[in-house]
Amino acid sequence: MGALYALYPFCKRFTHYPQAILGVPLALAIVLSAYSLVGDDDAQSKGDPFRDRPTTAATLALALAEILWTMIYDTVYAHQDLQDDVRAGVKSMAVRFRHSTKPLCAALALGQVALLALAGVWAQMPPVYFVVGVAGSAVALVVMLVSVDLSVPASCARWFKLGFCFVGGCMNSGFFAAYLVSWFGWA
Which intervals of the chain form a coiled coil (predicted)? Predict the structure, then answer.
């Protein structure tokens, strides 16, 4: 995965989608973590490490949601240097979609929230996950995309940090709340 992280800056030379490439190692961490929970002995005895299809579908939905989230926050971040990047010939989603970044990010956010919801359904998460994780992420994404002024670098930096904390915090809090509900048997 480290090689993929190292590849990210070089991708700005040949593709307008380095944000998607940055999201892949983050998503792979989700997939590898889920795979590690299957357990080697059990997986090898069945011959199919991803035999539980709803869990696999939930994992893949969560991984795709992570890629979309990375594309959103890193595109907002990239707007800080938009003018310099255009002059230097650096490619990014911010450069490619500079006149339609907010609609693009809104579409990506819609996909992210839908994938988070699907992951929850497929993993049979308790209602608290949908309230805190999914709805919380949706609200945080809306606030971020409405509030950020993409023409002001300081606003981009501010909402990159705040959005990262709020949206990421909602996603993590949704999982933690679901864990607590499961742990204490409240569901």
Answer: none
